[in-house]
Structures are given as structure tokens and as C-alpha cells.
Amino acid sequence: MGRHAERTALGREFGATDVIAERGGEGVERVRELTRGDGTHTVLECVGLKPALETAFDIVRDGGVVSRVGAPQYAEVPMDFGVFMRNVTLTGGVAPARAYIDELMPEVLDGTLQPGRVFDRSVGLGDIADGYRAMADREALKVMVRS
What we know:
The chain is an alpha/beta fold. The protein has two domains: 5-93, Rossmann fold (3-Layer(aba) Sandwich), CATH 3.40.50.720; 98-146, no CATH class. 38% of the residues lie in helices and 22% in strands. It is built from six helices and five strands. A three-stranded parallel β-sheet has the order 1-2-3, with helices on one face. A two-stranded parallel sheet has the order 4-5. Helix 3 (50-59) links the parallel strand 1 (40-46) and strand 2. It is globular.
């Protein structure tokens, strides 16, 4: 689900078969149509705001899994008794980047390993705030910080 054209195009290149731009009830209804009313087996909620997590619970099928990944933008989780009674599992956590830095960072820095096509902008240490603004304003997918 998404409206950022560059992100959804990249998602299609990586194998996404359907992209849903609608939000709220319209988005939920579209997912239900695509899944013949069942909802999805698994939902990744990736550092969205509270409405994104609410949508995740609305589109996951009974017995499904919602995985909240990245750094949460808010503390409360709208997983009420109704969601609980549907046997929905909530899981997640931050990426364990520290576990891979020693091994991978030298290869990224010397160009041996390409970190991915999601990085479409680079900024220096003094421009980190501009990088975050560009991502928030949907001017960049992900920004790489270079020293």
C-alpha cells in the first residue's frame, strides 16, 4: 500500500503484483477485494504513523501476523480486544544493524557491496536534517549519509 510513485514502482520491480493507493476504509476494502474477503496473511508496518498500524490490523486476516518494523513513531498500539480475539499476532522490532556493521560497512564504503536501490540521495554530515526532510516530503526514498 502506498502513494509514493517511486517507492511503489520499485516495489513492482522487486515483485509486487498489486499496489493500493487508497487509504482508510477504501484501502481496506481494496485489500479485501484482492484477497476475496480474507485479508492478508502478513502485514509489514514500516515506521508509519498510528493510522498505518490501524490499517494493518484491519487488513490482516484472522490468525495473521502484523509485524511492526523500524523505530516506532508513537508508543500506543491500537490492538483492542476485537483484534486480540481474531488471533492476530503482533511482532516486530528495530533492525539489528549493529550486528552487521563490522562485516558489511567496509564493503559498502569501498564499493564492493551496493547497499540497494532504495538510496536515491546522499547528504553530508551537516545536511542530515535536509535528508530527513526530503524523505518526509517524499522527495527521496532513502538518504545515505556520507562523511
